[in-house]
């Protein structure tokens, strides 16, 4: 199947569209205009139309979009028809919160294994998820064929553990540590640096004041 | 003071540069080339040079950058010389984790007040932060002159609480709920949707495979 290369900003909005379309379907809405969708997801309608245009003709001019058609389409694009199992490494405060975070609600994702050094927590089940000791990391990731890891370990342990993840065959890491980890080019890293997010918000408030529209924020440069 | 409008992608990288420059200074490094900085922060050196160019001539050709000069400059730009107090609303699992999260380490930010509906937690001090009941939200935010809030409440309470935050004079909201909240145009919202971040990582892995360079990810469109 030929793939269209879409911008990251578009890819990031797809789960948002998918979630709202499900809300709409559950409330009995069968069709929607890009203007109505725009109002709900706070993305301007020109951006929505451009995002959708990457996937060909999804709507009819003057009619809008059929909600169920869009859901079916995004479900396939987002691989929602199959459960994605991920592992969490580091069950500290943030790790615990993520075990309780409902990734599955709109996204078909489940944390199916966790790992921690603490002998008090390793070998237990936390929020329904088994926690394995760190010395079983490589073996369990291989046995369970997990390819994606959420990394919530202390900064000074992050690189050594990342090296083990690479040995275990991990393909993607959602990195919550402030360290920019080194990985081979075939491993994808998504950095989620909460302090930086907050710092950016403060920076923009102090330098520019009010909100810019989403497109202006994400798409400039 | 005249302000240069810089792209959001650049603004997001400033705290990262600042943090690494502090690492470097602490380890005794006095000057650095954009290539060396690039290696450390995993941002290509052309992007670093372009980011720095928004702020005028920060380095000398063939010499590189003076680490202390850069730190002094970014400290001012990022308002690191003054503490920014923020409030956290919703002390559930994620809220608790954020109270323990070290926002202050490289960024001069402190959560100085928290709010929760639960009478068991309201009126206590959690991780050094006083937790007030929700009916004191507006008053305490005003008295403490807090302008930035981290929102970690259940989705179905998010909009009503946001309305109160607006009444209290809040200027910026870091929104961890999956809801796209409605605010007046003078309030800035930074959405941090963890499920979407994870979904985006999975999407890119399944559709494109390995990591693209940071510039390709953030700056296209």
Multimeric status of the protein: homodimer
Give the % helix of chain A: 40-55%
Low-confidence stretches of chain A: 213-221
Strand content of chain A: 15-25%
Distance between the termini of chain A: 31 Å
Strand order of the largest sheet of chain A: 5-6-4-3-7-8-9
**Roughly what is the average pLDDT of chain A, rounded to an integer?**
85
Q: What's the overall geometry of chain A?
A: globular
Task: Give the class of chain A from helix and strand content and strand pairing.
Answer: alpha/beta
**Sheet with the most strands, sense and barrel status of chain A:** 7 strands, mixed
DSSP summary, beta strand count of chain A: 9
Descriptive overview:
- 2 copies of one chain form a homodimer.
- In chain A, strand 5 (125-126) and strand 6 (129-133) form a beta hairpin.
- The model of chain A is unreliable at 213-221 (pLDDT under 50).
- Chain A contains 9 helices and 9 strands.
- Chain A is an alpha/beta fold and 221 residues long.
- Chain A has helices at 8-26, 34-41, 45-53, 67-77, 93-100, 137-143, 155-167, 194-208, 214-219, and strands at residues 31-32, 65-66, 84-89, 109-116, 125-126, 129-133, 148-151, 172-175, 188-191.
- Chain A has a 7-stranded mixed sheet with strand order 5-6-4-3-7-8-9, with helices on both faces. Chain A has a two-stranded antiparallel sheet with strand order 1-2.
- Helices cover 43% and strands 17% of the residues of chain A.
- Chains A and B meet through helix 1, helix 5, strand 9, helix 8 and helix 9 of A and helix 1, helix 5, strand 9, helix 8 and helix 9 of B.
């Amino acid at each position: 199947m030929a793939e269209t290369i879409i911008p990251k900003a578009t890819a990031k909005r797809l789960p948002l569209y998918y979630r709202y379309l499900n809300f709409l379907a559950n409330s009995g809405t069968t069709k929607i205009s890009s203007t109505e969708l725009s109002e709900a997801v706070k993305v301007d309608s020109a951006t929505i139309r451009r995002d959708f245009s990457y996937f060909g003709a999804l709507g009819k001019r003057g009619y809008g979009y059929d909600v169920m058609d869009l859901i079916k389409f995004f479900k396939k694009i987002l691989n929602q028809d199959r459960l994605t199992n991920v592992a969490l490494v580091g069950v500290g405060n943030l790790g615990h919160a993520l075990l309780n975070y409902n990734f599955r609600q709109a996204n078909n994702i489940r944390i199916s294994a966790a790992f921690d050094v603490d002998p008090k927590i390793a070998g237990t089940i936390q929020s329904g998820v088994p926690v394995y000791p760190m010395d079983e990391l490589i073996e369990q990731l291989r046995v369970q064929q997990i390819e994606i890891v959420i990394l919530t370990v202390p900064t000074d342990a992050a690189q050594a553990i990342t090296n083990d993840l690479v040995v275990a065959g991990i393909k993607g890491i959602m990195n919550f540590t402030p360290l920019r980890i080194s990985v081979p080019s075939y491993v994808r890293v998504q950095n989620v640096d909460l302090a930086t997010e907050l710092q950016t918000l403060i920076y923009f408030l102090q330098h520019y004041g009010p909100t810019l529209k989403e497109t202006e924020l994400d798409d400039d440069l």
